[in-house]
């Protein structure tokens, strides 16, 4: 093993340091989300909201759900916690050995899971989307793409370990930007494969003849599934030079009895359930939505894509930079510092997510219309997706807060509490879905609303239990939250009023109208929010060091 870099220094800088490091992660996430929107826009233009896109979304959701649960959820949290403790207590050589053991064990286990997933793809699709069987060819297309995309799970699992190593070494920018290469590879690889497999389809779309040949559409969407594998490979490959730079060298070793590897596995079991609530709820939503005809699965997917932007920029970014810090505080026995770090991260989550939620809820139509309303994705699709986005936005702060709170429990070697809270959340979500869709008839909007309610309840429970465990999470947390809510309310009221005055002056419909509404609303929202924050005494973090 080649000598490695020195372990990270003690934490300092508090809230400003968290904001600065989160800013690095947010920059990478922003690039990824922008390319992700381009990727989704490509799907919308080429396929619209119908059979092919519903099939792709469902097929990708199966390995993607397992990625969120095992790779970027439980595995990332369990590995970062154990790797940080090993580096703090036993030195870098021992930590690198643990990283090799995890990588090699992961390749064996996830490789086997991938093979099983390919074999049992028909059963998985029938379980997730039983309503597809009522539409000729939809189930078969979904099964084919599920089998193509299942190896993505192995690629992204290895990428998650790389991300954990780099984050523990305080390298945040490269792993955050890696997902941008996934989206880039998905677009270029998918369109390239489409030119090979279905060369006439793209011409047909822009010539007004797409959709007349279901076989061509099926071949075209299958090409996009191939592009997903290209993107997963690039996401892993781009992190390799940075891994080499911090001192990691791969070694072909396996030792199932290693205490560190066993600790990672021990944490992963309950952590998998603990991280599962939102994603399993999305899966349950797909089951209900599959009975609502063509469109609802795609509308919910579009809406949740926009939700993932602030979740990634704020929740994931803050959770990513907070986890190594709280793990080090735990290893050093400083519980007060741990609680303080979590509280600072949650205050930043509220400051960033509450205004974003208000904006998405009120301006969902121009936001979605500007990006998606092209080709076969029409105004009715925009309206339906915007309704789902407004319902999802209700729970935005809850989604993001979970990204900070759940890993804090893992740093305390407590995976039981997030697991129990998530089990309760999953049961609650199913009951709410049944009530909103089957009893009240809210349709796809009810599915989004139930997911938001569960996310908020999950976040509140985790917050209350962690506060009892470690003490106060920051100073005057309640007062700060009330002031942030007030600032967000003032912001959205001003933006809505200006939009109501200006909208009659814009074109009646189309891309120009959506763009002009946002060009007016965004600057007004930013200026009013900044002014309200200053008046209410809300500290706005500076991401740059003072000279």
Give a structural overview.
The chain has two domains: 14-475, no CATH class; 477-540. Helices cover 80% and strands 0% of the residues. It starts with 13 loop residues before the first helix and ends in an 11-residue tail after the last helix. It is built from 21 helices and no strands. The protein is mostly helical. α13 packs antiparallel against α14.
Number of helices: 21
| First-to-last CA distance | 40 Å
Number of E-state strands = 0
Order of helices and strands: HHHHHHHHHHHHHHHHHHHHH
Output the structural class: mainly alpha
Work out the helicity level.
over 70%
Largest sheet: none
- Summed up, the domain count is 2
The rounded Rg comes to 23 Å
Query: Are there runs of 5+ residues with pLDDT below 50, and where?
Result: 1-13, 543-547
Mean pLDDT across all amino acids: 80
Q: Work out the strand percent.
A: under 5%
Overall outline:
globular
Could you list some keywords that capture this structure?
disordered N terminus; 80% helix; 2 domains; 547 residues; mainly alpha
What is the topology?
Elements: H1 14-47, H2 51-90, H3 92-119, H4 121-128, H5 138-149, H6 152-168, H7 173-197, H8 201-206, H9 214-237, H10 240-246, H11 259-274, H12 277-289, H13 296-331, H14 335-362, H15 364-372, H16 379-393, H17 396-411, H18 416-439, H19 443-470, H20 477-502, H21 511-536
């Amino acid at each position: 093993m080649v000598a490695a870099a020195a372990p990270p220094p003690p934490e300092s800088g508090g809230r400003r340091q968290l904001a600065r490091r989160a800013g690095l992660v947010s920059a990478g996430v922003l690039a990824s989300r922008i390319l992700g929107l381009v990727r989704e826009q490509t799907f919308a233009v080429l396929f619209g909201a119908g059979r092919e896109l519903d099939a792709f979304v469902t097929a990708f959701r199966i390995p993607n759900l397992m990625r969120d649960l095992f790779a970027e959820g439980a595995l990332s949290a369990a590995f970062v916690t154990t790797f940080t403790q090993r580096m703090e207590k036993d030195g870098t050589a021992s930590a690198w050995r643990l990283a090799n053991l995890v990588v090699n064990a992961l390749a064996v286990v996830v490789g086997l899971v991938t093979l099983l997933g390919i074999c049992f793809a028909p059963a998985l699709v029938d379980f997730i989307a039983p309503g597809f069987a009522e539409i000729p060819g939809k189930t078969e297309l979904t099964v084919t793409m599920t089998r193509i995309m299942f190896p993505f799970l192995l690629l992204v699992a290895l990428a998650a370990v790389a991300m954990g190593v780099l984050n523990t070494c305080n390298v945040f920018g490269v792993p955050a930007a890696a997902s941008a290469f996934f989206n880039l590879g998905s677009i270029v690889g998918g369109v390239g494969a489409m030119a090979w497999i279905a060369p006439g389809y793209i011409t047909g779309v822009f010539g007004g003849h797409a959709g007349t040949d279901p076989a061509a559409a099926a071949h075209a969407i299958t090409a996009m599934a191939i592009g997903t594998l290209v993107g997963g490979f690039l996401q892993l490959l781009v992190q390799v030079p940075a891994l080499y730079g911090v001192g990691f060298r791969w070694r072909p070793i396996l030792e199932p009895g290693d205490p560190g590897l066993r600790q990672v596995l021990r944490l992963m079991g309950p952590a998998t359930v603990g991280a599962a609530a939102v994603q399993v709820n999305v899966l349950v939503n797909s089951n209900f939505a599959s009975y609502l005809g063509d469109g609802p699965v795609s509308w919910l997917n579009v809406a949740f894509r926009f939700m993932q932007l602030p979740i990634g920029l704020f929740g994931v970014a803050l959770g990513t930079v907070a986890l190594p810090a709280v793990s080090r505080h735990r290893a050093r026995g400083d519980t007060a510092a741990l609680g303080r770090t979590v509280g600072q991260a949650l205050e930043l989550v509220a400051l960033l997510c509450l205004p974003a939620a208000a904006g998405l809820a009120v301006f969902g139509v121009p936001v979605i219309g500007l990006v998606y309303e092209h080709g076969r994705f029409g105004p009715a699709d925009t309206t339906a997706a915007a309704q789902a986005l407004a319902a999802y936005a209700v729970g935005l702060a809850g989604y993001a807060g979970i990204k900070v709170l759940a890993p804090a429990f893992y740093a305390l070697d407590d995976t039981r509490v997030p697991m129990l809270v998530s089990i309760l959340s999953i049961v609650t979500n199913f009951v709410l879905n049944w009530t909103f869709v089957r009893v009240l008839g809210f349709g796809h909007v009810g599915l989004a609303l139930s997911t938001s309610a569960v996310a908020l309840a999950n976040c509140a429970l985790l917050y209350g239990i962690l506060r009892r465990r470690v003490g106060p999470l920051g100073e005057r947390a309640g007062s700060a939250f009330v002031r942030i809510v007030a600032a967000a309310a003032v912001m959205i009221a001003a933006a809505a009023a200006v939009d109501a005055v200006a909208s009659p002056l814009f074109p009646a419909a189309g891309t120009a109208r959506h763009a002009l509404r946002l060009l007016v609303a965004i600057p007004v929202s930013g200026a009013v929010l900044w002014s309200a924050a200053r008046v209410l005494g809300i500290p706005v973090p500076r991401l740059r060091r003072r000279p």
